[in-house]
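Subject: complex prediction, re-run

Hi both,

The earlier run crashed halfway through, so I resubmitted it with identical inputs.
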Amino acid sequence: MDKLLHISGSPHVHSDESVKKIMWSVVLSLVPALLVSVYYFGLPVIILTLVSIGCCVLFEYLIQRFMLHQKPSIDDGSAVVTGLLLAFNVPSNLPIWIMVVGALVAIGIAKMPFGGLGHNPFNPALVARVTLLIAFPVQMTSWPVPTPLWSFHFADAITGPTTLGIIKEGGDLSQLPTYANMLLGQMGGSFGEVSAIALLIGAGFLLWKRIITWHIPVSFIATVFVVAGIFHLVNPAEYVNPMIHLLAGGLILGACFMATDMVTSPTSPWGMIVFGCGCGLLTIIIRLFGAYPEGVSFSILLMNAVVPLINKGFKPKQFAH
Amino acid sequence: MSNSKLNILTKGFFKENPTLILVLGCCPTLAVTTSVTNALGMGAATTFVLLMSNMLISALKNVIPDKVRIPSYIVIIATFVSMIDLLIQGFLPSLSASLGVFIPLIVVNCIVLGRAEAFANKNTVFDSLLDGLGMGIGFTIALTLIGAIREILGSGSIMGFQFIPAEYHILIFVLAPGAFLVFGFVMAAVRFIVNKNEEKKKQKAAKRCIKPLPV
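This time it finished cleanly. Structure:
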């Protein structure tokens, strides 16, 4: 009778998933894109990424330890994901102190004041990116020209326009990068968004791990493609091929990694589709008619704001009803 | 000056600060705090209007019929706002240009009407004067604080004196989102301090109340 029987309440079957595991999988899925940007933009990418991640983790630790007086939970990796995504959203020649400001905005304004992980209504990395874009419009829109590592091109101060920038300014369309370059990542832009293939590999990994579902990325990208396609068909002289809209800018990065953020996206499949379509529609409206050349981050943030409404409208049916 | 009179004057500075605690007059707080000069100008103009309208409304409180008191208050307030508007236009044209429509808009500032309704029509002329002055100074303190933070971070200067080079300016603090951010954080900080003070007071009071248990 010295054997104790433990009886616990349900659920009795656990999956081995945890916040920690999910966050580190997301980090892993972003590695291919990071490697491609190191290849094209060199050392500054590594420095900025490390600074961004380090500052996000540090600020989260300091705020939890000294302002909220709770046990720091930095080992769950959510601050690392925020830092990595934030770094992906800036040009590689950004001054380091601006990166630190961005990390402070992400953790100190967008995440912790709302209650930390799981309570933030807006994606912290995107809030920081948009804040930086409004706060430092000059530094945030000077895009270095990608130069492959072995080309020994040491004049590192060359900057050029992004693909969407050329379209918005009504510039020479023959300057647009080829589709192959856009797929591989040889185009101007924030350093994480350039390579479509690397991002899609990461997204495929997340889909396989079932960390994200197909609903948001597919509906987001399809909406952009369809709306851009309609405009292109009606007036090909004014509006460019929808393939360019698909590959240029941060669409794939935003649709696969930021719009799918578990905390700030709807919970039900139909809600996710509505959310994705809304993001896509806003993105293409901003790209075609707005003042900014790129609208992915704005559209995701705007749709984040209506997520509670979407969740209310698309409640999953209860069993046995 | 007795303690209660002093209390009427000073409660507006911090404990019942019209912008930071009562959250009145948000529109000028967000709109004109791009620089310390603007904030001070706005604060001074509002303080003048508050002071004069509080006094006059308190003096006329037995004459004004209750049913038409709000229109009457607005007429009185509008009179003083027109006076200060013309004075600023005449003597400080540059301030008038930078504050623009927000000087005439003092008429609909909820602090002025709020103090008339909540304080001046129930209290003596002298008390209303103190209340108006205190609230006006509290409003000015809040505006100047927010204005200073926004000017230092956004334009790297204070009272127009530049001391941070242009490449370190954070443009967002001059724009509307920066106003909301700074307003929110200043409000949170003030609330934090006020709450802490009150807790301390309660603890002190609790200590005083403890009596030795009967044996």
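The two ends of chain A are 46 Å apart (CA to CA).

- K.
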